[in-house]
Amino acid sequence: MGIEVGGLLGLIWLIIVIWAIVKVAKSPAGGLAKLLWILVLLFFPLIGLIVWLLLGPKG
């Protein structure tokens, strides 16, 4: 049962990170800012997502 729960949580986390990347890509921020946010989200998913939610582009 633990593997199924871990897999489901991993899938949910992946969906959240993909959602954040899509939001960054659609934001009015400049190209370099978008690239940097996406790289942060990819390489540091937990910290990157928290920082993006607090400081990232709004809209």
Automatic annotation (TrEMBL):
Q: Where is the Cardiolipin synthase N-terminal domain?
A: 15-57
Q: Keywords, A to Z? A: Cell membrane, Membrane, Transmembrane, Transmembrane helix
Its transmembrane ranges are 6-24, 36-55
Q: State the annotated membrane topology for this chain.
A: Multi-pass membrane protein
Q: What is its main location?
A: membrane
Which Pfam families does the record match to this protein? PLDc_N
UniProt-listed InterPro entries: CLS_N
Instruction: Supply the name of the protein.
Output: PLDc N-terminal domain-containing protein
Organism phylogeny: Bacteria, Pseudomonadati, Pseudomonadota, Gammaproteobacteria, Oceanospirillales
